[in-house]
Design goal:
Structural class: mainly alpha
Number of domains: 1
Radius of gyration: 25 Å
CATH topology: Fumarate Reductase Cytochrome B subunit
Distance between the termini: 64 Å
Strand content: under 5%
CATH class: Mainly Alpha
Largest sheet: none
Number of strands: 0
Order of helices and strands: HHHHHHHHHHH
Helix content: 55-70%
């Protein structure tokens, strides 16, 4: 029962904090737009140039394609496109970690589906088509996810330790982030990797889903607690960049809506100009005035 509460609480906090962060991003004052071209959403200018190059552009409709914009975002979110283009050696290990996490997300969902689709004690060859599909997909995603994510997190940690350039820009928190993920994955392999059919994992998942009591081993308990801690920690750490990617692309890099009189952008600019910083900074215009004689 306690492990079920830990599992549900960690999932609830992960989703809740992530949604709260998205809300904070969405309600922040207007940013300093970069408008990096080519901007995917601009129809007719996909290969460079801009709508603003048109004569009397302010008299013409600004045609945009949000489908193309979302497609470009997905390339970055799913495949880490920019890292692939600019840092190919680092991309391999970083993408191994991310792809492994995607597999493990699917694996977890498949375990839950399997609880209700694969009867206990039934041999694989006796399963129906749906049950067989869930069974083999669970095996595939579980093995690939654990292997890739563990390899990626371990390799990224070692790369930051031994690469002199990365070492200069790596904070203690970033080492901790990778070690936490690596620890959760290694205990996961030790816990569930002894049964590559993941029948035990499915049984434990069933107990967690239904709040049924079960006798957990020390490793199972440790892994569930570590995963719970990781899920709560991720959205409050730098690893929450998955929340900010949409806003980075949509509202910073590719937001080139015209600032016309009476437009929504004009209203946002006026609103942003009244914003007063709530934190201190070393910039001269934000330093408090010095009293005469001091």
């Amino acid at each position: 029962m306690l492990l079920s509460l830990i599992a549900y609480l960690s999932i609830f906090l992960f989703i809740g904090i992530s949604v709260y962060k998205a809300y904070r991003f969405a309600t922040m004052p207007m940013h300093g737009r970069m408008d990096l071209y080519p901007i995917p959403k601009e129809e007719g200018f996909e290969h460079g140039g801009s709508f603003y190059e048109e004569s009397e552009w302010w008299k013409k409709p600004h045609k945009v394609s949000h489908v193309r914009e979302i497609t470009e975002m997905l390339k970055e979110i799913v495949f880490i496109k920019k890292l692939f283009e600019n840092q190919r050696p680092l991309w391999w290990i970083s993408y191994a970690l991310h792809l492994g996490i995607y597999f493990l997300m699917c694996w977890t969902i498949l375990l839950v589906i399997g609880v209700f689709s694969i009867p206990n004690g039934v041999a694989v060859e006796n399963l129906n088509v749906w049950g067989s599909l869930i069974y083999y997909l669970t095996v595939l995603t579980g093995i690939c996810g654990l292997a890739l994510a563990t390899l990626g997190s371990g390799a990224l940690f070692l790369r930051r330790v031994f690469d002199n350039t990365l070492k200069k820009h790596t904070t203690p928190q970033e080492y901790f982030n990778l070690l936490l993920i690596f620890a959760a994955l290694v205990t996961g392999i030790m816990t569930w990797g002894t049964d590559l059919s993941f029948g035990t994992a499915r049984e434990v998942t069933g107990s967690l889903v239904t709040f049924s009591d079960f006798t957990a081993t020390t490793l199972q308990t440790l892994n569930i607690i570590l995963v719970g801690i990781m899920l709560i920690y991720i959205p409050i750490s730098k690893m929450s960049h998955y929340v900010g990617k949409y806003f980075t692309f949509h509202k910073v890099l590719w937001d080139n809506d015209p600032n016309l009189k009476g437009s929504a952008i004009s209203h946002e600019v006026k609103k942003a100009s009244t914003f007063k910083p709530t934190t201190s900074w070393s910039a001269p215009h934000l330093k408090p005035p010095v009293a005469p004689g001091k």
